[in-house]
Write a structure and sequence with these properties.
Length: 193
Amino acid sequence: MSQVSSTEAPALTPRFCFDERLLRDFLRLSRSTIDDSITQNINALITPAKEGFDPSSTAVRQTDSRSRRTIDPAACQGFKENVLFPSWQTRSDVLNYCAGVATSPDPDDPDLILRQTESAQDRERVVDERLDPYSGRFFPREARTESLANLIRNERTIEEIIRARTWGMVSEKCSGSTPWQEALDSWRHDRQK
């Protein structure tokens, strides 16, 4: 059985977080490695020749549920503990770190002076909406911390959806009924011992 590996955690720095393309690429790669291919990852856990090959099994198409092979519970548990949960934890760590960066002061913001200048110019503008009904509109540049905060909020929503879908497949194939949040929290708790 070839074991799928989780993506490595990137070096967490504010620069990494503010490079939104790099942050998105990391999340996309991590999700595609584990979650997007969850069916293949779970099916790789099946040991097909456990009972031996039955030549009559190829004579008729098997459509009933008895033809489904069961997955060894130890293999399922190993996959969850060594591949799935570490991948989820790495992504959680990245999102939590970048959320902290997004809520911290940003003295190195390259657009800070430009935004301050635009804001000062906007306060000095004379607006006559009778002459130009659109002249009252002003859309200030968004600080990069605000942009990062929006990105983190969106990615956390995506993460919730992906984890629910992935856990549904894992629960179906590995016969489990615990919600993914509880299973992940239990894994985290066991790791801290």
